[in-house]
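Thread: "does anyone have the structure for this chain?"

Original post by V.I.:
We have the sequence but no experimental structure in hand. Need at least a predicted one for the grant figures.
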Amino acid sequence: MGSAAGKPAYLVGIDLGTTNTVVAYANAAKAADGQADIELFAIEQLVAPGEVGARPLLPSLRYHPAAGELAAGDLPLPWPQQEVEHAVLGVLARQLGAQVPGRLVTSAKSWLSHANVDRQAPILPWGADADVAKVSPVAASASYLAYVRAAWNHRFPHAPLEEQELVLTIPASFDEGARALTLAAARMAGLPALRLVEEPQAAFYDFLQRRRATLREDLSNTRRILVCDVGGGTTDFSLIDVDFADGTPQLTRSSVGNHLILGGDNMDLALAHLVETRMAAGSEGGMKLSAARLSQLMERCRAAKELLLSSDAPESVTVTLLGAGSRLIGGSRSADVTREEVAAMVVDGFFPKVELGDTAKKGRAGIVAFGLPYAQDAAITRHLASFLQQHQGALPDTLLLNGGVFRADALARRLAETLAHWRGQPLTILHNDNPDVAVARGAVAYALARRGQAPRIGGGSPRSYFLVLGEAGKDHRAVCILPRGSASGEEIRLTERLFALRLGRPVRFHLATSLFESGTPPKLGEIVDLNAGEYLRLPPLASVLHASDGNDKREITVQLATVMTEVGTLEVHCVAEADAGQRWLLEFQLRGEEETQAETSSVPPRVKEAIEKIERIFGGKAQKVETKEVRQLRQHLERGLGGRESWDTPLLRQLFDALMLRARGRRRSAEHERVWLNLAGYCLRPGYGDALDPWRIEQLWALFDAGVQHHNDNQVCAEWWTLWRRVAGGLSTEQQLRLLDDFAFNLQADAAQRGSRPVTLVNGSDDDMLRLGASLERIPGAYKAEVGAWLIKRLQKADKRGEAADTNTLWALARVGARQPFHGSAHEVVDSAIVADWLHVLLALDWKKVEPAAFAAAHLARMTGDRSRDIGDDLRATILARLKAVGAPPLWQTMVSEVTQLDETATRRMLGEALPPGLKLIG
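Reply from O.Q.:
Generated one for you, tokens below.
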């Protein structure tokens, strides 16, 4: 059956899961007649070398074979393969990954929500050897969708997947970044047009569709439903409230939990640690697996867990880990795991009996394994207690469970018993006949509901939303852009009002929402007085919008189009009045608005005077200003604004903007340039933290190629490099590599080369370069290793001359070899074997006399929990013993012995200065 012109032939739901990808569909024409059945799409895939079979589940895995490992005949597919690297997907990928360590890409979906790595960089398989082909989390996700598209188009050549009505599911707790990357993956796979729906909602839509004939009876005693979705990589909680109108249940989603990287993968990891300990007990000197081997063991433990938690489970299972290379058989190890052990570990470890008043352990140092920051508290029941405490109201009286882990009856029973204990009475359990496929089926049911052909979770927007006119805080008028009750997913165009939109320059959009509404909601486009009712101002959205033709820095007339999405964002499109094809998207995250107040400016009242002082020194109209006044600008600013260490981010950025606007004035004298560079770098540090910082960095970087005006002034040159060090956290990899070029020239150029240096290449002392090079966290790890080698040579030369080790050199070594970067991606840290060599050099120093050596060692040996980054246990023990022997601060010792976070003092020392007040590093 082909697609009619402009009309899809099928409604298709895709569950891009952490563990499996599932596709379901319904015939669109039959759906219109109310006769559509939702079917599962059996995905053809490799189930063994040379063998293709159709399965409803496509494992969300990629195996990257070595050259010559598989023959061409081992990988037949009914359609041409597009990927150059010929990664293996399907059931066969799981089989091969269990046999060969370090070549299996897993949990790509979890990586999409991990903000401390570059999710578009080729980093997976995490911790794999250099000769293994790698892929980004986004590209890996795209490859699963592209595979599904190829399989679908092979079966339905006259109804290509990209032309169907598509719904893709995501965790309810995905943030804007993870959602955007998911959509980017879909576009890479050739699926540019689709809708997103949250997985817990999809699971509930599946229930509604399956039970639509008896829904009134099924929900007759229900007022609040908890949907608990525990998948392979994430845990999601959602509450759905039930009211009845004319005997028909009306369903409204009321609450969604925070993002938790906690699921079946964590259970497999816990079991793998147990098995690893048992295997080590039978070997001389113990045994600690590499990250790749541990990942391989996890796959074996996953199969054992599922078998031992099944209804007809055996008493025990033997888990075998094959040897590597030539010791494939002789080097294998085995350990037995019993049904009772797995039940105790998984049920009591992840679903312990807790009280409603208990709260999940929180900390910025979660468990890290394979680079992923798993939730610090593994107890799902405690996370649920915290969720219900945060979302006040009646406790849920009905429970719907979803996710493969709940195939184990013991887990489902424990969760139901816990909720019943909190309520003091049993819950109604809604039957989920197949948790593995419910989300994909529910995505199709959602598509049917949008067409009015199935029950829908609705109620529309619970509040009205308003765009504040004029300047927030001064103008109390606002225009209604989304009236209460507006249906989710439906775009509303505000045609009666026109707005002037400024392009190419920073703009802020301020929202407000009604706190309490009764009666008739305000009409679309209606102007309200925010002082005349109870309204909550929401955090503003700052952005720089660009014209598609590059003609920025102008104002155009636009209309507004708004839509409340199914995933909790308010999308506002600015649509050009003259050309409706020109649209600029603004996305406001509305979840948690009850706990979020609009940002209140803490800018001191004397900021106007401060900007006048900046204008006097650097303004366009040259004023007679003595050199002394230029030099004392900082002190003058501090008199009006307080000590600069107390200047918070909003104030700092306002001062930077004032300086940047007057950047040309820095060239008037060497004193002007020194002061401007010093203040500009200080006010923009660390280069991120405010929504407009990327735009500010873009403006600042435009000055780089020109260099400094007074290039013969050593202090000007030093301030130049201090500026770039301070803002390095906001620079891209390409920009940091450009800085690295100048770093290398200043260190390596001989006299002849220095004599012919371009005047725009700013001179830098060894100490300037030392501090700069240590701050370039986004450059590749191999380059960092070269910088570190230079630092080690400095230490060794000083030692040969009988000189004390230089404090700055040791500080830089700590930054360059840090196991946990501040702003860089964790995949670009220096190889742990190289860091181990550096640590041996530090161990040769006298830490009692050279305290910075202990500081550097603590950071090089810092524990992350990620085996691909951490040093070996024996060396760790040596470092820890030395730290204790010299009486190093307790935090340094803790950093080496366990996963922890730096305090403010350690952060200041590591960065070279404090972060602005109110700005905290979370990575």
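V.I.: this helps a lot. The first helix runs from residue 28 to 32.
O.Q.: and The chain has a mean pLDDT of 85.
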